[in-house]
Amino acid sequence: QVQLVEFGGGSVEAGGSLRLSCVASSRTTRGRCMGWFRQAPGKEREVVAQSDARGTRYSESVEGRFTISKDNDKNTLYLQMNSLKPEDTGTYFCAAERRTECSGFTDYWGQGTQVTVSL
Prior knowledge:
Order of helices and strands: EEEEEEEEEEE
Number of helices: 0
Largest sheet: 7 strands, mixed
Structural class: mainly beta
Mean pLDDT: 95
Shape: globular
């Protein structure tokens, strides 16, 4: 069973930065699709960024502001979030698939961490 635990959420003013971390079970980050999703109140969960064998991809709303990265030695996935906006507010979830390329079918979820951006 793969376990994912997120850290790093919090409250920040617009324009600020946060870095989320997702610590995974041993070797989980190696050679598989991993990503970050978020869910705002009253909205559906949406993909923010993904990393797999093909590279990295971002949603249009965060392109140029967020960066996804992995440290395989630490079994950790990161999301560096810069120039945060109030619309970035939500619960952020770490996600992983069993596949080397993301298919859109998430196999494992973290418990989520709250990010709140105020004006």
